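Because discrete structure vocabularies remain unfamiliar, it helps to consider an illustrative case, giving the amino acid sequence and backbone structure tokens:
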Amino acid sequence: MKQYLSFFILLFRCQQVIAQPTTQNQLPVIHLTDSVSCTEIKDQSSSPTCWAFGTNSLFESDIFKRNGIKLNLSEMFIARYSYIDKLNKWLATKGKTYYAGGGQFHDVLRVIKKQGMMPEKAYSGLKKGEYSHNHTRLDTAMKKMGKQFLKQGKTFLNTSDTKKINDTLDRYLGKLPATFLYNLKQYTPKTFAKEILNSLDDYIEVMSFADLPLNKKCLLIDKFNWAGDSLYNISLNDMQMLIDTALAKGWSVAWEGDVTQPGFNFFSGYARLDDSLHQSDVERIENYKTEKTERDHMLHLVGSGKDEKNNKWYYLKNSWGTWFSKYKGFLFMDENYFKMNTVIMMVNKNALPEYLKRKLGF
């Protein structure tokens, strides 16, 4: 999404925490009741690629559940090809769709189905001497190139245009290898995806807006949904039941929503909305339409638990590294914050409750 965690943003957020200290007795003690295995915390640094980190983390957990294989998938392989997809759409619509470094869960699926996948070791997106992602110059260069194509009246990318784009991507992310070794076996991105990341058609995205038909695929109007994909619209209660069932079965869930609200504090490790007197279904619609609720970050939901007052909390993995983080990159989100600020989730269909499978026609 649009979330850049540059040094200056990090410093600003640190200042916010210092200005509004939270005493230890204000912080709840939460005991996890359900959790699934996940890979180590990563850091998107100054790159708007949380969507790739969050989705890859979901896939890494699911691969471990299915096959017992521990993987570190390449986020920058996804970001690279998604940029080309977005530019093609942007030109075809004469600049009317979203064209920047952000993305969505289904953008990752689209790239893998078309182009395949690589492990992080095969393609890190970091040039020699670089230790963290910084896409400021890349995003500027890609936007400039897109505007030039648009000014020239192009509505699709020809062979020459595609070469220029790949040269630019090579300059900032490094060249893609045609083949690579994994466990002493040679793969192409497509053979790797076919063998290791199978069953991609089993993934679905869900949302919950009371003004849309329930248990049907609906179009979520949003600039980030540049491809015009539809999602299953379900009730808020079903979204929560989905999480409970998934975790109980050993599956995790990808989460997307608003992390700009005052109750979200990465450093203390909590996202909470103390006021529970909200009409969630009604307010969610208005907040989304007025953009009070933003879709600005994606996380990986890997557990749930209860505090000493029996309040429910969700446990999520972030992609902002471990610096200044109470739970080393993880955080707890309370039920109230979840209800008000969740926009989209993605999960494997096998994780769904049986009654919800029937509702959705699976």
Observations:
- The chain has eleven helices and 13 strands.
- Confidence is low (pLDDT under 50) at residues 2-25.
